[in-house]
Structure formats: structure tokens, C-alpha cells
Specification:
Layout: E1 12-13, E2 16-18, E3 24-26, E4 30-31, H1 53-66, H2 73-83
Antiparallel strand pairs: 1-4, 2-3
Length: about 90
């Protein structure tokens, strides 16, 4: 489980589970620096099953949006939009 001391600013990984019964699960983000091999990793409780792929991918995207690295996509969008402000025609003035 993610702790408040976990530093995700240098990157993180998220486990995405695909179960044999057709359900999915998305794990908590973990700092890349804590990545360990399968034997050395603490056993965590598997996350709750998600019944369909669309919901699972939305959950995964929400994890990424909640834990942004660097400038957010919204900041990039806003910067590009402001740089291209529409010009008013002098004929309409």
C-alpha cells in the first residue's frame, strides 16, 4: 500500500492484473526505486477486481492523473491555448 512518505516524483510503476475469469485489477503506485524482484517483494493484498476492461483502464488513468510527474497535461494545454489567442478582425470593430 502507498504510504505518505513514498516519493513518486522520480517515477513509479503500477501493476495491472488480468485474471483468468475475465476481470481486472489495478494496484497502487510504487516508486521505481522500490522495485524488487518477485522473491524479494513483500506480498500485498491483491486489489479489488474490476469487471470490465474500460473500467480498469479508467482506474489506471486515474492513478496516473492523481500522481502526475512533471508538468501536467492541463498546464501544457493551457500554455498552447494562450499562445494562440484568436485575433479580432478590424472590420468588426
Amino acid at each position: 500500500m502507498l504510504t505518505q512518505q513514498s516519493d513518486l516524483s522520480q517515477g513509479y510503476y503500477v501493476e495491472f492484473y488480468v485474471h483468468g475469469d475475465g476481470t481486472y485489477a489495478v494496484g497502487e503506485p510504487h516508486p521505481i526505486s522500490e522495485e524488487k524482484d518477485e522473491e524479494g517483494r513483500e506480498q500485498e493484498q491483491e486489489p479489488e477486481s474490476i469487471p470490465d476492461l474500460t473500467a480498469a483502464l479508467k482506474t489506471l488513468l486515474n492513478v496516473v492523473k492523481t500522481n502526475p510527474i512533471g508538468a501536467s497535461d492541463q498546464e501544457s494545454f493551457d500554455a498552447g491555448y494562450q499562445a494562440q489567442e484568436p485575433k479580432m478582425s478590424k472590420e468588426r470593430a
